[in-house]
Amino acid sequence: MATYASRCTTRCLLRFILKKTSLTKGDWCEVLKAGRGCSTLPAGQTSTSAPWAARVGLVSHYDSLVLSGSLREDTQQRAALLQLEQLNRVMTGYTNIPIPQPKDCSQSQPTSELENQESPRPHPPHGYYIHGDVGTGKTMLMNLFYSFVENPRKTRVHFNGFMLDVHRRIHKLKLSLPKRRIGKMTVYDPIFPVAMEIAKETCLICFDEFQVLDIADAMILKQLFEGLFKCGVVVVATSNRPPEELYKNGLQRAAFVPFIGVLKEHCHSICLDTGIDYRRRKGKSSERLYYISSEPDAENAVNTLFEELAYRQNDVTRPRVLNVQGREVTLSRTCGTIADCTFQELCERPLGAGDYLEISRQFDTVIIRNVPHLWVGMKDQARRLTTLIDNFYDQKVRVVMLADAPLDRLLDQGPMTGEEARDRLMLDELGLTDEASERLTLFTADEEVFAFQRTVSRLTEMQTEQYWISGDRSQK
Fold it and tell me: How many CA atoms, within 13 angstroms, populate the side-chain half-sphere of residue 271?
C-alpha cells in the first residue's frame, strides 16, 4: 500500500514537472524569470541583453514586478538598483581598450615595467560589491543588472570558477617561458600579464558568490585585481560577507588584508541587511523533492521517480563519461537529461566547479542519493556540496535529494572528530594558544559552516514550484 501511494505521489510530481506552461513563451516569461531571481542569460554569456531590457529602465522594471506581485517591495533592494542603474547607463558603450601591451614574455620583465606601458584612457567607473545574508535578493539584483547591461564585453562567472581559470592561465604562461640559463637569475611575475589577458576579453565582470577560501587565491588577489582595475575592468560582485570579513581567520590573512583596500577603492559597497530570506518565502512548495532515508519507502519513491522520468527520455539507462578539460568524469547511472548520482560520486571524488558546471550543462534533473549527516570534520565534502549546489542553482538544475538528515540539520557542528583531535594535539605541541588556533582555518570549518547556510537556503528554493517551472528545459 505504501509503495502504491509513493507511485501516485511520484506520478503527480511528474505531471507537474513535465506539464507545459505559457510562462515559457515570449517576453513576459523573461520578465517573470527575472522577478523570480532566475538568470535571463546563461552565466558568462556576452551576447545582447534581453529584448525587454531596452524598453524600460532597471528601477522601473523592478517597480513593475512589485506591482504585478512577482516581487515583494523591499526599500533596500530598490535603493541598490538605483545605484546599479547609474552604472548600467555608464557601461553602455564603455570599453577598456586600449589595453597595456607587455613585451615579449621570454625577456622575463619585472611587473613594474609592464605596468608602465599603459595608453591613456578615461578613468573607469566604480563597480559595486553587494553583500548581505542568504536569500536577501543579491542574486536577483545581479540577474536584473546583468540582463540590462548593453555591453558586448560583459562576463558573468562564479568567483570560484574564475579563480580556477586564473590559476590555469598562470600555469600555462609559466610553461611558455624559456628555461632559465644556469647562473642567470631572472624574475618574472605572471599575475599582471594574466590580468591584462582577461582585460582583453572583457570590460565588465560580474562575480557570483565572492568568497575566499583558498590561501593560494588569497595571496594573489591584490596583485590580480590591481591589474584588472588598472586595465579598466569594472567589477560587480555578490557575497555573503562584507569586504572586511573576507577570508576571515584565514592563514596569513595579514598578507591578504591589502586586497580589501584595493576592492573598496574601486567598488562601492552595498549592504542588504533586511534579515529576510526570500527564498524561504518564495511561493508554494513543490511535491516531495527532499527525502530522508529513514522515512518508510523513501528510497522506493526516489527509484520510482527516476524510472518514470527516464521513461520519457529518448535514451536508455547507462553510464555517461563527461570530458572536462581533458579529464574524464564518469557518472554511473544516467538517462538522457536525467542523472541518478550518489553523494560519493559527486562530493567524495576530487571534483570542482568546472566538473559541476559540465554536469549542469548536460543534465536538467539530478538525483543525489546517500547524502550523509555532515559534520564539521567533513570539510572537503561540505565544500564540494556547496559548490555543486551553487552551480546547479545558477544553471537552474532541478535536484531530488535522499539524505540521512533533514535539510535544516544536514550540516551539524558536532563533537570533535579524530582528525580535529589530532590537529588540537599538534597545536598544543606547537605551544599555540586557543586564540591563535582559532585564527587558523587549517583547523576550523568556520567558512564551510558559513557557506553552507547559502546551500540550505538555495536547496529550500529549489523545492518550490517556481524553481521547477523555470528549470523545465524541455519548453525552451
Answer: 7
